[in-house]
Amino acid sequence: MKTAPTLHTERLILRTFRLEDASDVKQLAWNPNVASTTDVIEYPYRDGLAEKLIRRWGNCFIKEEGPNFAVTLRSDGTLIGNVDLFIRRYLPHNDAFISYWIGEPYWNCGYCTEAAKVVIRYGFRECDLDQILAYHFKRNPASGRVLQKIGMRYWDYFPNDTKHWGKWEDQIGYTLSKNEYEEL
Length: 184
Hints:
alpha+beta; Aminopeptidase; 8-stranded mixed β-sheet; 8 strands; 30% helix
């Protein structure tokens, strides 16, 4: 089966998810403090959902919709989160959205920024993207700081943009073009 490449940083290894990761995904992602920060994770957790997500994430790469990387610690292989690119091949644009989540025990360590940087580089260099975009919930400014640290710039404010857990959420958009990336 075709899998995403493995990416390396100073402290992390980003690799394809494996079914053996399901219990770690369940433990990390279905923490309400993590799940509430993204519209990608369903909450409350349903049995078998982690396995279903891991299969779907693998199929995304096979269908050329983009990679979903398991973020692991280089020191011992511990799974700590996810960073993905959703490549919009169905549009005339050559762009993608980046999204991520990191398990709460690993917050405020710079892991998300480190992982997102290498995925941005992969997107521009290996996927030949012209632009990468991202959203974060307004009530989650830490996610916005990650986007700023990786060089993304404010794009637009989207009030009441998406319904999450029965409540309308404001989102803030960021963007980074290939030209801007090359100037960083």
